[in-house]
Design brief:
Chain lengths: 309, 219
Amino acid sequence: MSDTSTFRPVAPYAPLPPIKGEKLKFTLSDPFVPTFLQSALPPSVRDPAQVYASGVKGKQILLENPARESRTKKLNDEKKVRRAKHEERKRTGVLGRTAAKRMGLWNLERDVVKYDTFLPIHHLWLGYMAELLDLAPPPDHDPTRNNNASTIPKLPNAANMHPKLVKADFHGSILTVRRSKNPSLVGCCGIVIHETENTFKLVTRADKLKVIPKQNSVFAFSIPLYAPAPASSLPFPEATPQTQTRDHDHDRVSINTPATTTTSASTSVPTPALELTPSIEFELYGNQFRFRATDRANRKFKAKETIEL
Amino acid sequence: MGKGRKGGSEQVPNPSGITNRDLLQRLNFLYQASVYLQQASTSSSLEQAQTDTRSSKRRRRARSTESIGTSELLSDLSKNYAGSMKAIGAKAIVKMDPVVKRTMCKACNTILVPGTTASVRVKPSSSHRHAISYTCTKCRRSRVIPAPPRRVEPPSNTPAQGPSVSEPYPGESARAPTGRHRKRKRGLTTAVPFFEREVGHVVFRGSHVLLQEVAERDE
């Protein structure tokens, strides 16, 4: 290659000369590697052909060091992934399980609840009910007039209340288990502090937390017939347990979660001596109430008949 | 809560005509209950802490676990109520008022009470001059809300002098501004937001009127 190019004048458009030279001409009979080994090995090696046969022939050899990821880059990548995860979590506001545990979410199991702590919530709930159901303000406090004229015509329409009550919030209400498949639950009464899809959690007067399944039980709760007077709201009157309200003006209505209303209105004469307001009692069929409290907000309830229990 | 608030001036506003009124009432109830529980939680933890300093060590330990349980339980319930508020609002597409929404932690739904469950700091902001950051003390989540200086009512006055009704930071007005500063401030001031203007809001509790503003006509 060298002797020809030095003497000839350069002809730029001429076709390239064929590449000559043994170096690049490899045939099976005359391969490159053995000859290269012979020339490249130091003279101290006695038999290059044997070195080739034992160490090189038929083996895959990496001619260069493999490309290696630097450690810092690896660390950086890990960091990036971690940060992205963190950002994502921060954006969505999701707590991890460990974080939630550390913050002590939902260890309701300890018996540290106090009935008196939740009594104000019950009174708040009564106010909410009065507002929701648009209850009339109480008539005159004169007991004689109360008995005769004003209470009876002002009985609110129970059928209008049902769709509102079904969508209402029951945190803070006083529920009593009226009937149940589990007989030991019957008569259990307390303020609802938490409602889940399948249970009510009640605080009883004995400061006990009861988790009561909605399935297979019928609950009862009562709402005063009149809105609480705004002035008398400060000294909270003691809440009356369900069993005592039986002898008052008492309109038993069952909410069969939307449907059938067995309105057996039993209007008895209220006893003014006890200073208890007349109330309406509703029944709540737990079997048909098994939804999350938040799902009930815009749920369409359908009329169903309860056959068993 | 924006419940029962109406800007109608000519006809008598009717609270029963509001859409989703029952849901708004429910949200209202949940919010009040949640705030009450949060308060009860902090007060119970404080109370226990006070008694702890007096009682003996062993009793203190037994007591403190109980008190932590109580306050945790109450705050958990409070969070749950606030969370259900959010869920109801999202499900039924009932918008919560921003004023209410901002008092709940975005991450853990704690009711943010400045000093007890939230630390409130005024921070400098490049775009709004001031921003108020509310940091939840439970989960350290912070929410930064821009708080640009409000425009002073009579626009002819120099905004830096004279205390006015709508000046949110009286300390800011006391500082004598440089010329450049004052210019920037003027450019950045914003008007009073709509819900704080007196345009004749009527506030109802239940169905009877609680507060009736007289609309300002001279605007």
